[in-house]
Amino acid sequence: MSALHDDPRRLDLRVGQLRAGLQEKAEPIALAARSGTEFFAEAGTSEIRLSLFGRPLRVSFPEFVVFEPDGKESNLATQALLLYYLTIADGTPVEGRWVSYADLPDGRFYSQAFQGYTGRELAKHFGGNLEAFCQAAKKLDGMNIAYGDAAFAFHILPRVMLAAVYHLGDEDFPSTCQILFDASTSHYLPTDVCAILGSMLTRKLLNL
Question: Which of 52, 165, 176, 183 falls between 20 and 30 A from 65, CA-CA?
Fold first, then answer.
């Protein structure tokens, strides 16, 4: 389904294509402005700095290779994710308006599957324990938002925000959860990559 779930050879090819496209046309100051990242050029080293789920990463310029905090190259999936972000970013402001996966471009066809491995898994894990959901979200630096019975927004990339929303059930209806996206997200990532981010957020909440 996703560009980040291709077999390694195809993913490596896609990373090379994204990298070549950025190398051909990217002007670093403008790119940083569009993507909300920081560009540093000092002592012969040029790089773009940004965070993914709070993890600081570096993207070398003009090579566009992504590096982890320990200096090692990131895995192919992370390389592709950040290169997609830098390629697509057009500077659209974060809106603060939340939409479902189905509302993303071409997202409706895959929305039930997305809910199955995100919101449904969260609801199954937390059951009716609203407090446990809130504690997990806070440990992941979630910010309270007014939505459902409890909801938290998460800063995934400089201009990509996701939210996890919890609706408490009763004796007639079970509790439900849903992963939402800021309405500006399609200006920064393809829809299939958004699905990967939703899955990543879900896994992190389940493991806290």
Answer: 183
